[in-house]
C-alpha cells in the first residue's frame, strides 16, 4: 500500500537548475521534499507528498480533511 501525506510548504529553493526543493512541514516535523512534479508550489501552499516527492498541490481545506481522515483511521485501528 502507498501513502501520500499532505504538508505545508515553508520555503522553496533551487538546488541547481534541474532540481527544485522545498522545506515542508508535516505537523511541525520539517522535511526536504522534491518539487519537480509540482514546480508551481510556493511557500504557504499544501502539497501531497509520497517518498519525498510532492505529487500535487492542494488547498488547505483538502489537506485538513485528509489529515482528519488519517486521525479517524488511527482511532479506529486503536479500538481493534
Could you tell me the CATH topology label: SH3 type barrels
Instruction: Report the strand count.
Output: 5
Q: Please tell me what the overall shape is.
A: elongated
How do the helices and strands follow one another from N- to C-terminus?
Answer: EEEEEH
**Termini separation:** 20 Å
Name of the CATH class: Mainly Beta
Q: What Rg is obtained from the alpha carbons, in whole angstroms?
A: 14 Å
Number of domains: 1
Broad structural category: alpha+beta
Largest sheet: 5 strands, antiparallel
Low-confidence stretches: none
Describe the structure.
The longest helix is centred in the last third of the chain and has 20 residues, at 60-79. The protein is built from 1 helix and 5 strands. It has 80 residues and is α+β, with helices and mostly antiparallel strands. The chain has one domain (5-79): Roll (SH3 type barrels). The protein has a 5-stranded antiparallel beta sheet, with helices on one face. A hairpin with a 2-residue loop joins strand 2 and strand 3 (29-34).
Quick structural summary:
With 80 residues, this protein is an alpha+beta fold.
Using brief descriptors, characterize the structure shown.
80 residues; 1 helix; 5 strands; 25% helix; single chain; elongated; alpha+beta; five-stranded antiparallel beta sheet; SH3 type barrels
Topology:
Blueprint: E1 5-16, E2 19-26, E3 29-34, E4 46-50, E5 53-58, H1 60-79
Amino acid at each position: 500500500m502507498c501513502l501520500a501525506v499532505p504538508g505545508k510548504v515553508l520555503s522553496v529553493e533551487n538546488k541547481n537548475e534541474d532540481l527544485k526543493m522545498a522545506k515542508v512541514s508535516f505537523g511541525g516535523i520539517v522535511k526536504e521534499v522534491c518539487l519537480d512534479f509540482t514546480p508551481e508550489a510556493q511557500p504557504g501552499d499544501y502539497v501531497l507528498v509520497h517518498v519525498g516527492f510532492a505529487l500535487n498541490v492542494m488547498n488547505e481545506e483538502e489537506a485538513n480533511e485528509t489529515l482528519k481522515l488519517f486521525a479517524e483511521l488511527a482511532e479506529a485501528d486503536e479500538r481493534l
